[in-house]
Design brief:
signal; 3 domains; 31 helices; mainly alpha; two-stranded antiparallel ribbon
């Protein structure tokens, strides 16, 4: 802490001295030259200037997604040029721009005072600070410091961005100069001591240069990489050879990224095919996951939010595929920390073997354990990430005939079987067919029973109706004993006496429908009924029983 404090004090002192020198020299500074945007675009399209602090700031200034935005005072073309021309000798000497600017000044002192650089002015110095911090982090039990994978001794395409990532993630004394720059109005590079920038101007004014300087004769890779929002870049396509080279570089560094796992599956010729294996789609998938990696430098420049390049929209990232951090969280913090006491032997063996090879310290592939374990036990914590991915990617499988079944297996519907709704649905399906056949019989039996019911009642109904009148009068006329004798003689003639009343009343009602036919048909029809009445006689047996009782009483 003490060393950092002293360094900060020393830096503030230098800034004050520099401000005083500038104030003294202001009167002697010539009229500032006009620096065109096209000049900066050309300067920042080649190394070593492309990796310089000034060109990095130029790209940050053009990034409209930064929140808060960098102060416009740090983004003027003259400020960018001053940074480039006050940088390391190998950078400033490579630019014709710097030679043209220096002509107007008497010496380097006046040039530096009239065109002051940023608080950090040496690209090689910030690169050395960052690499030293990364070396101190080697062997640390955990994730590497951010930015260490994008800047090495061999290749460091954007030292300022790598330093910014490392200082945000783990400041270790390498961030003093960057803190000073952030304080001036680039707080987004430090994510601390934040202050809001004033409203971003609508767009930089057009250069007051010949129109030919603004419209290139042809669309080149360097031109669209520098500013992909230009309408001329709509038809530009990033070469396949470059895409393949970027994929190889990215997956050699971090093979465990989900996008690299998919790429390996595509190369293996398995069940990952079609749109999932398009090279630009894979590059898009990886660079949306890890945009700060060096292999994504070209993609990020080409496919930013303001890009006009159609290729970026035609080849989006794989839908739903988890990022590296999401996959790691689902596997290491979800599946591998699940309670194993309640697991089946198969699931226990699978989880044990998978989690032994994929843990907090190292993992070669997050998608395989995520797919394998969640296919067996979809209810485990972390499987939500897996099924969200498979559901999102299913649209590509249906629409384009592509496949990702190596990971999203055909049994991907295990969440449905695990749901309590599916078993009842299976039990309910057979029950309706059982009820359906039972319903037709009642409907068919009535029509069969109705005709006999209508045909038999004409003969059976008269006795049924005649018996009640015979039964009810006796019940009320039981006191008189004279009436039974009158009915005792008719027992043999009782049928005629009972038949006469029904023939008297029914004929009046029955004769109209069966006036002539029944007369001829009745004799043969009466013979069968004469044999059939016995089954119906039991209904008319009560009168004889009552008569017997009365006879017993009479005797």
């Amino acid at each position: 802490m003490g060393g950092s404090y002293k360094a900060l004090r020393r830096m503030l002192y230098n800034l004050i001295v520099l401000a005083m020198l500038i104030a003294v020299a202001v009167e002697s500074c010539p009229t500032p030259p006009v620096v065109l945007h096209s000049t900066l675009i050309a300067a920042c399209s080649t190394e070593p200037a492309r990796s310089a602090i000034g060109c990095s700031m130029y790209r940050f200034c053009g990034n409209e997604t930064l929140q808060p935005a960098i102060f416009p005072q740090l983004c003027t073309t003259l400020k960018i040029a001053g940074s480039l021309c006050n940088d390391d000798a190998n950078i400033s000497s490579s630019l014709a721009l710097c030679a043209q600017l220096r002509v107007q000044y008497t010496d380097d002192v006046q040039f530096r005072s009239c065109l002051p650089p940023y608080p950090i002015s040496s690209t090689s110095a910030i690169k050395a600070l960052h690499l030293h911090a990364c070396e101190e982090m080697e062997g640390y039990p955990g994730d590497p410091m951010a930015g260490c994978d994008t800047c090495t001794n061999v290749f460091c395409p954007n030292p300022l961005a790598s330093l910014s990532a490392g200082c945000i993630d783990m400041p270790m004394g390498q961030c003093d100069g960057l803190d000073a720059l952030c304080t001036l109005g680039a707080s987004v590079l430090c994510k601390k001591n934040l202050k809001d920038a004033p409203m971003r101007p609508p767009s930089p004014p057009p250069d007051q240069a010949p129109a030919s300087a603004m419209v290139p004769p042809a669309v080149t890779s360097a031109y669209c990489m520098a500013d992909s929002s230009l309408p001329q870049c709509t038809s530009y396509e990033y070469p396949l050879a470059n895409i393949t080279s970027d994929l190889s570089s990215l997956c050699a560094s971090m093979a465990y990224m989900p996008g690299c796992t998919i790429w390996a599956a595509c190369q293996a010729g398995g069940n990952v095919t079609g749109d999932f294996c398009r090279p630009m789609t894979l590059l898009s998938t990886i660079c949306i996951d890890m945009p700060s990696m060096s292999g994504c430098k070209s993609y990020v420049a080409l496919c930013k939010n303001t890009s006009a390049v159609q290729q970026c929209r035609s080849f989006p990232a794989i839908p739903g595929l988890p990022t590296t951090s999401q996959a790691k969280l689902a596997v290491v913090s979800g599946l591998c920390t699940a309670n194993r006491t309640a697991m089946t032997p198969v699931l226990l063996n699978l989880t044990t073997s998978m989690c032994a090879a994929c843990n907090q310290l190292s993992c070669r592939d997050y998608l395989t354990p995520l797919s394998s374990i969640c296919s067996v036990s979809p209810g485990l914590n972390g499987c939500g990430t897996y099924y969200s991915w498979c559901q999102a990617s299913a649209a590509w499988e249906v629409a384009a005939g592509s496949s990702i079944s190596t990971y999203c297996k055909n049994q991907q519907p295990p969440p449905l079987p695990s749901s309590p709704r599916s078993p009842p649905a299976i039990a309910k399906v057979p029950s309706p067919p059982i009820k359906l056949p039972l319903q037709p019989p009642p409907k068919s039996s009535p029509p069969i029973a109705l005709p006999p019911a209508k045909s038999s009642p004409p003969a059976a109904s008269p006795p049924a109706k005649s018996s009640p009148p015979a039964a009810s009068p006796p019940a009320k006329s039981s006191p008189p004993t004279a009436s039974p004798p009158a009915k005792l003689s008719p027992p043999t003639a009782s049928p005629p006496t009972k038949m006469s009343p029904p023939t008297a009343s029914p004929p009046t009602k029955m004769s109209p429908p069966t006036a002539t036919p029944p007369t001829k048909v009745s004799p043969p029809a009466m013979l069968p009924p004469a044999k059939k009445p016995p089954p119906a006689l039991p209904l008319a047996k009560p009168p004889p029983q009552r008569l017997l009782r009365r006879l017993h009483h009479h005797h």
